[in-house]
Design goal:
The protein is an all-alpha fold. It has 2 domains: 121 residues, no CATH class; 41 residues, no CATH class. Helices cover 82% and strands 0% of the residues. The radius of gyration is 19 Å and the shape is globular.
Length: 176
C-alpha cells in the first residue's frame, strides 16, 4: 500500500511539473523515480526514454506505466498512469477557462509565460545533457551525435529526423 501511495504522489508531482511536456519532463521523472525513489537505475531510465520515443504517447505516461508496473504490477501501472495525467486534466477542466479569459491579454501573465518557456527550455537542455552523458561513451559517439545534430539544424533541405535516426542506426550496425 505504501508503494502505491508513493507512486501516486510521485507521478502527480511529475504531472504537475510537466508544463513543457516531452523532453522537459525528463529531469522531473529522473529526479522522482531515479534519484529520490530509486525505483529505476539511470540505465533503465535511458531504456524507458528510448522505448517512449518509439511508442505513441507522452514520455511521462509511458514512464508512469512502466515504472508503476515494475514497482507494483498492473495496479501500480494503472494508478501511476492515472496520477500523471490527473493534474493536467483537473487544470484543463477547472482552471484554464477562467484563467485564459481573465489573463490572456495581461502583460504580467504574458511575461510570466515567457519566463516559464525559458525555464522549460533549460529543462530540455538538461534532459539532452543528462541523457547524452549516459549514451555518448567516446569521441566516435560524440562525432555521430554532433554530425546528426548539425544535419538536422543546419542543412538547407532540413533532413527528416527519421532519415537521421535510421542513418545513425546503420552506422551503429557498421561500427559497433
Amino acid at each position: 500500500m505504501k508503494n502505491l501511495i508513493e507512486l501516486i504522489m510521485s507521478f502527480m508531482i511529475i504531472g504537475i511539473g510537466a508544463y513543457g511536456g516531452g523532453m522537459a519532463t525528463i529531469p522531473l521523472i529522473q529526479q522522482e523515480i531515479v534519484n529520490s525513489r530509486k525505483w529505476l537505475s539511470i540505465k533503465e531510465m535511458g531504456e524507458i526514454l528510448a522505448i517512449a520515443q518509439m511508442t505513441p504517447g507522452p514520455i511521462a505516461i509511458n514512464s508512469a506505466t512502466f515504472t508503476g508496473f515494475k514497482v507494483s504490477g498492473i495496479i501500480g501501472s494503472t494508478l501511476a498512469t492515472i496520477a500523471v495525467i490527473l493534474p493536467s486534466l483537473l487544470i484543463l477542466t477547472f482552471f484554464t477557462p477562467f484563467i485564459m479569459d481573465r489573463f490572456e491579454n495581461n502583460h504580467y501573465f504574458i511575461r510570466f509565460s515567457c519566463g516559464i518557456q525559458v525555464g522549460v527550455t533549460s529543462l530540455i537542455i538538461f534532459a539532452v545533457y543528462s541523457y547524452g552523458c549516459g549514451v555518448i561513451k567516446g569521441w566516435f559517439d560524440l562525432a555521430i551525435a554532433l554530425i546528426a545534430f548539425f544535419l538536422l539544424v543546419l542543412s538547407e533541405k532540413k533532413l527528416h529526423p527519421i532519415l537521421v535516426i535510421v542513418t545513425c542506426g546503420i552506422l551503429g550496425l557498421i561500427f559497433y
